[in-house]
Amino acid sequence: MQPAQITGGRSKALLIFGISLCAAMAAVILVYRVVQVAQLEVARAKATPTAVEVVVAARDLNVGVPIGPDDVALRSMEAENVPGEGVFHAVTELQGRVPRERILANELVREGRLAVADAGVGLNALVSPGKRAMSVAVDAETGVAGFIQPGNYVDVIVTIRPDDTEGQKSWASKAFLQGVRVLAVGQRLDAAEESKAAAAKPGAFKKSSREKPTVTLELDLAQAEELALSASRGDIHLVLRNDIDITQQDTQGVMASRLVGREPAARTPRVVSTPEPEAPRSEVISGDQVEQVRFNEDGQREVTSPPGRRHR
User: Fold this and answer.
1) By CB distance 3.0 to 4.6 Å, which of 18, 27, 127, 156 could disulfide with 177?
2) Can you tell me whether residue 238 is helix, strand or coil?
3) Is the pLDDT of residue 206 over 60?
4) Quick check: 222 pLDDT over 90?
5) How do residues 11-23 score in pLDDT, each as one tens digit?
6) Is residue 138 part of a domain?
7) Would you say residue 26 lies in a domain?
8) Same structural domain for residues 44 and 67?
């Protein structure tokens, strides 16, 4: 073998070896960069906080009672479990706010469960803008046996006996308000407190008529006018409905006669006889004689009394 051929083969081998070495080094560098980027992402993820501080109830918060500094506390929660809106991140943001619903201890406090800021305290803080609070007396029947609680929704039915001294008309009943929110039962604004009171006094709805409990409803002004008139003219009944049921049904009301399968008897008109007007009368004096005469429809003269002597 000639020396030139041996030298050419070694050159090719060295070239191939160099290319392989460069490829291996490039692969090592690429793997190193990938690992480095991954490590940076992991470090960045670890540096990102996974918990946030939110305000929760430190104890049970009652409806209508202002929140004090000891009623709420900060609690760390996983960021993915915290709603994006309507939560509070500082205790001072809740000072003086009034719950519209009962909030249990350790429960997240949200804006939607609080009354409007600066709305006051007690019942007036629970009344929605543009609405009014009005109370009606109830008993065991009209109050659904005491199962109505604050926060429920009811329909209002009035039963009226029309003004009729002759008894020609029967009782009428009509549902005139639907889906009305109950603000309070008696003097309690909280459903849990009302349940405790009912359990402590199971006969609360069996009191005398002088001690009937009241149910306070949230109405607009026109509805309040209708309820005031209905309460003064008839008996009010409350019908409990599902809290999420928003359906409205148009009813024509019902008469007592329809319940027994007959229409009310037609009222017999009263016939009043009117006496016919008498024909005009006159006195005819002739000397000392006087007679009574009248004129009929034909204008003819008729004597109604014989002539007599004139009294002097």
Assistant:
1) 156
2) strand
3) no
4) yes
5) 777 778 778 888 8
6) yes
7) yes
8) no
Rounded CA-CA distance 309/301 in Å is: 21
Pick the more confident residue, 26 or 302: 26
Mean per-residue pLDDT for 121-138?
A: 84
Residues 108 and 163 in one domain: no
DSSP 274: -
The closest of 95, 102, 89, 104 to 51, measured between CA atoms, is 89
Dist. CA 107–CA 234, nearest whole Å: 45
Confirm if 159 and 239 have CB atoms less than 8 A apart.
no
Same domain, 78 and 135: no
- The per-residue pLDDT for 155 is 93
135 and 252 fall within a common domain: yes
- More confident: 37 or 199: 37
Q: Which residues have C-beta within 8 Å of that of residue 122, sequence separation ≥ 6?
A: 64, 189
DSSP track, 191-226: HHHHHHHHHH-TTGGGS-GGG--EEEEEE-HHHHHH
Three-state DSSP at 173 gives: strand
For residue 89, give the CATH number of its domain.
Answer: 3.90.1210.10
Determine the structural domain holding residue 82 and report its residue range.
Answer: 51-123
Residue 297 confidence (pLDDT): 65
Residue 197 covered by a domain: yes
C-alpha 72/C-alpha 55 separation (Å) is: 6
d(CA 198, CA 279): 80
β-pair type (172-185, 72-78): unpaired
Between the two ends of the chain, the Cα-to-Cα distance in Å is: 195
The answer to the question of residue 198 being in a domain is yes
Q: Quote the tokens at residue 128.
A: 């929605």
Provide, rounded to the nearest whole percent, the portion of the chain with pLDDT above 90: 14
Phi and psi of 253, rounded to 5°?
Answer: 80, 180
What mean pLDDT do residues 227-236 have?
A: 89
